[in-house]
Specification:
By secondary structure, the protein is of the alpha/beta class. Helix content is 31%, strand content 10%. A six-stranded mixed sheet has the order 5-4-3-2-1-6. A two-stranded antiparallel sheet has the order 7-8. Helix 6 crosses helix 8. The radius of gyration is 24 Å and the shape is globular.
């Protein structure tokens, strides 16, 4: 059987950007979450989201690397018989469930040391303990240090990923194919790829192959991409918020920095991954036809609010300013 022909390599920065779409957002050491890991990692489920829908997904093997349910101390200790009651819900402390301390008040009221508990350090059953803590430092003189226990070793930083960031391997791979196809739909994608390291022949060859692969996988339905605000009527890639056609050069260009506020190791580019429907609990929105590319500035404005709520807010801001007497006229677009 003939070996499949290898595609020409993408410019390194673009290749990394597409690859990293399969990873979660960043997390600090003081957070419970892992930093920049695969979206297939162990998921952390807040106890108040535990229910039949999640149990069914677990029975179907949806979470390939397992899950850990995090319950607040006050929820756990309010029960007459916590162990028995959790067992009735399919949970067991130290096996698939941990008590999660987040505040100084929780730590003081339900001190795990006084109960002989250990901090967990494993993402698989047994978890190695009954609790995990991420209590921030306070400004008061007493007890000012933060309390970070469990999942703090270098190779075990963070207990898992946010539930809503999860995606399985097939979904991640399809998203990467579609995201690269959307890159090649930028009006200057060939020119930008050539400017940043590809030969024109290689860029044209890869563009053709990726668009064909996306179409074969059902990932290049232009009407669906337009309805999702990922491309415009001319099938050009646009920013999902401002709808301005994107220059592919923005995938490689670092963000401009304000004079006097320069950061020497800035790695943020002008164009970033953009979730059309925002990531939120109850949905798994890292999926095809919900991922596009957008301006970094527009992405920051939308945050986790969603595009339409953000547009409504922006319109209200303009209306209030006009009512105040501020003249809002179309002018030269700010550089994104």
């Amino acid at each position: 059987m003939p070996r499949k022909k290898r595609l020409p390599a993408l410019p390194a920065l673009l290749g990394r950007k597409i690859y990293k779409s399969g990873q979660t957002r960043g997390a600090d050491d003081d957070e419970i979450y892992q930093n920049r890991v695969s979206r297939m990692s162990t998921v952390l489920i807040p106890y108040h989201f535990w229910g039949e829908a999640l149990k069914e997904r677990i029975r179907d093997g949806f979470f390939k690397c397992g899950y850990i349910v995090l319950i607040k101390p006050e929820e756990y200790f309010a029960r007459a018989n916590p162990g028995r009651e959790l067992a009735e819900e399919g949970l067991a402390l130290g096996r698939n469930c941990l008590v999660f301390y987040e505040t100084r008040a929780q730590w003081s009221a339900y001190d795990p040391d006084q109960r002989g508990w250990s901090a967990a350090d494993s993402r698989t059953d047994p978890l190695g303990g009954q609790y995990v803590a991420r209590v921030p430092a306070t400004t008061a003189a007493q007890n000012s240090d933060g309390i970070n226990r469990g999942f703090m070793a270098k190779k075990m930083k963070g207990a898992g990923i946010r539930l809503y960031e999860y995606a399985d391997e097939e979904t991640i791979n399809k998203c990467r194919i579609q995201l690269e196809a959307v890159y090649w739909l930028c009006y200057d994608s060939i020119e930008a790829a050539v400017a940043f390291g590809m030969s024109r022949a290689d860029a044209e060859s890869r563009r053709q192959a990726i668009l064909a692969s996306a179409a074969a996988e059902g990932l290049l339905e232009y009407e669906a991409l337009r309805n999702a605000r990922i491309i415009d009527e001319q099938n050009r890639t646009v920013c999902p918020l401002c709808l301005k056609p994107l220059s592919a050069r923005g995938f490689y260009t670092r963000m401009a920095q304000a004079e006097g506020r320069e950061v020497p190791d800035l790695t943020v580019t002008e164009i970033n991954l953009f979730h059309i429907e925002e990531l939120r609990y109850g949905c798994y929105n890292h999926r095809p036809y919900n991922l596009g590319w957008g301006h970094h500035h527009c992405n920051v404005v939308v945050k986790d609010a969603g595009i339409l709520p953000t547009l409504c807010w922006m319109k209200q801001v303009v209306l209030r300013n006009e009512a105040h007497g501020t003249v809002v006229e179309p002018g030269p677009e700010a550089t994104m």
